[in-house]
Amino acid sequence: MAETNILSGKVVSDAVYAALEDRIKALSDNHSAVPGLAAVIIGEDPASEVYVRNKTRRFRNMNLHSETIRLPEETSQEELLSTIRTLNHDPVFHGILVQLPLPKHIDTDVVINAIIPEKDVDGFHPENLGRLTAGKPRFIPCTPKGIMRILEHSHIDPSGKHAVVLGRSNIVGRPMSILLSQKQAYSNATTTICHSGTSDLRVITKQADILVAALGAPEMIDDSYIKEDVIIIDVGINRVPDDSEKGYKLVGDVNFDSVQGIAQSITPVPGGVGPMTIAMLVENTVEAAESLYA
Ligand code: NDP
Fold it and tell me: Which atom of ligand 1 is nearest to the CA of 236?
């Protein structure tokens, strides 16, 4: 049984950061500009806290500017929109992210639409999603962009392959399917997108040469869903209770042990897609700063 190759997002993200150094220096030398990110977090969701901390820590490590704006759970939608309008006009910030999910009394679409597309470094604004769909992207959502980068870095060319994407969210599954089907190098796959309305998922997943799991279903995808030599991208980040001090461990949407020796390659959780999401956020923010001087 051949060993399954691990696709490390850590290794690829380190290469991304190294490649960004010159661009950051050029912004500083030529324009005295430091790419800046405003991260807005509402409420006290522990997972959101970790995500925002990891993102802003990376900005600090790269000597970039980042500020976290913390708002209480009971913040009204209008107050949040007012904060975003202020950030839209603040030249210190080239990128704005609002950490999701938002409290139930706030309409996520209204909030995303309020960020000006030029600072929407998450790539969730309808204008940016529309541009991506039309093949003329501005900011590509960080997680799918990071996955494409892992494939390219690993010399896995999706062209001519059958890529199956599990999940159709606007932040992962849908943009992922668009990127994989674009007519360009390191894309050009025949792409199928599955969701909770898909009947007999296994019939489709067993056809996949590349399988992207973005379900939010802990370890759901096991050996019964795959064919031999499939390349698996496990996007899922799920907290499941355990006996550790933290009281939980992180698992993906794929049962990692079950697919060993069958899959050709797999991204681990943690250490796979997660680090790439952060790297692409940094890259998008650098791009946002550069676009001011293009
Ligand atoms: P959403 O909940 O928004 O979307 C999940 C999608 O999976 C939906 O389209 C849903 O179908 C589909 N789905 C769920 N269960 C099943 C099932 N049993 N069978 C078929 N389809 C199913 O999640 P996200 O896209 O935001 O995130 C997905 C996962 O990725 C989560 O674990 C999240 O934590 C993780 N994530 C990881 C990131 C990273 O950096 N690694 C970044 C972002 C997310 P339907 O549309 O019909 O409801």
Answer: 32
